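Quick entry between incubations.
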Amino acid sequence: MSTGVKHFIAFAALAIILIALPKVFVSGSAHTMMSLMGIMIIFALSYNILLGQTGLLSFGHAVYYGLAGFCVAHAMNYIAREKIGVPLPFIPLIGAFAGLFFGALFGLISTRRAGTVFSMISLGIGELVASSALILRSFFGGEEGIPTNRTKFPPFFGYKFGPQIEVYYLIAFWCFVCIALMYALTRTPFGRMCNAVRDNPERAEFVGYSTQRVRFIAFVFSAIFAGVAGALATINFELMNSQSLGAGQSGLVLLMTYVGGVGHFIGPIIGGVIITFLQISLSDITKAWMLYFGLMFILVVMFSPGGVAGWLALHQPLLKGGRIFRLIPAYALALVPMAMLAAGLIMTIELAHRMLVDAQSDGSVMKLAGWTVDAAKAQPWMLAIGLLVCGALGLKLAWPKVREAFAAQSAEVAQ
Amino acid sequence: MTPALSLQDVRKNFGPTEIIRGLTLDVMPRERHAIIGPNGAGKSTTFHLISGRIKPSSGSIRLNGAEITGMAPYEINRRGLSRSFQVTNIFPRLSVFENVRCGVLWSLGYRYSFWRFVDKLRDANEKAHAIVEEIGLGARRHAPAGILTYAEQRALEIGVTIAGGADVVMLDEPTAGMSKAETEQAVALIRKISEGRTLVMVEHDMSVVFGLADRISVLVYGQIIASDTPQAIRQNKAVREAYLGEEAH
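Done. Structure below.
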């Protein structure tokens, strides 16, 4: 199969998935979640233009998402007030232009250097913009942010974009367009030179390229797509507030991209889906959800630096060789101690959270996965520690078996 | 005839220490020119000064008659000078083919273009393909450069260096660390790729130097003490004392 055909099939499949998903998951909350996933996919992919493609670690990427979001909120209010006949689906282009503007402006400063200096400047710009957001109230709307209304636009082929499902399709359309464009970008001469600058900036200079220029263009592109994501967020929530351009949001996009995997184009897409799902569902279940995010990030960095996509890619040769199923026994064996470890960890965190945060107001008796436990008693703690110790010991025994099985099957495939 | 490369009284000091002390050197077009000298004489520094990696403290460097002193590496490269490195310096996560293609892109005018697909650029792909074959890595073209053997990486290093079609090519110890057989292959490759080009190389292996070079310059303590044909250099008294004499011990 030629690469052209492969790409066509992949993008056709993507389009079908995007169209069919709301028909499979029909609830309103599912549509809300999938809308957010679409936005985060664009945002994370835009971040990976920097991190994965060009090797630039930014701590302030939310600046371009947020600033574009605010510009779009004001533009939407202006367009609605002045009755300018721009339909809603074109509004993300305003976000793209805002991203372009701010990306070029701040990029001029921050892309002069790579490495640590770049990271520090991105952090500085992030703090600068986030703190000015609380001072310049007329533009950023203070604590409340800038509200807007997406239904005040002329209908687009009869759609008013009031219902969430219509907004989902608007986001899905832009998500498809942005994925296609960002993928195409990786396959251009410029995209390849981004990789070259990432791998070896010095050599890139000696084959005729200004690494500073390559970084700058990559930075502007990533800001443009972050701007589209920010615009879609404004449309989706009908609100933009200063949290969206702060360090928390910048950290979140780093987390999504890294957990998904920076080494593969599909990584940030996986990361955007997983993290958004966890963010929404975990925050319903536990107040300590941020802690779990932190733990997950550490675990990925330590044990699977390629992220989910890297882990999947590791198994691809086995899948092709038809030997992936031979791994199931070893993986099942490792899953038991892993589950114990996870259960022990969750129990410890929840008990500790109860005792440290909520015990004063609500007492030490709590519900944990349906059971009523008293966090002030010794038994639940003993159980948690027992699970942790047994899980850790079990994993230590099981892990060599996993490695062995993987090596054995890989060797079989290689022959 | 204008020299392809001309250095006039170039000096470089790091703090109070002067490493390059008034270096003057002319390399004629189409000449294979070797720079030899004992360790610490400033050979690599000279390469860095010419290619723009470090800037001279004073003096003038001209490429085909045009001043290039103090320019950035990419500007010097665009004017037709390309260099390799003593320590292999390639793009480790890109494939062999893509390494060479990165070297080709600028010279064919593709610059920073993001509106066309790199796989569809017939001229760039054909040229990269031809170079990969020329350096003998055809069978390895899809392998990531980082997993190649040392000798293969050295060959790729040369491939990336010549990919942009520079007319002045500088090779920094191209055969360092190679076995005898590998060295012979490398010499054959260098002979081939320097056909019709100006070649400047730093090399420690005297059999390589005397086998390849049309002219040899001897660098001692940051100065050129002699610059002549291999025959004349072999018989030069000052050179024998300063440098070649050491080899005889």
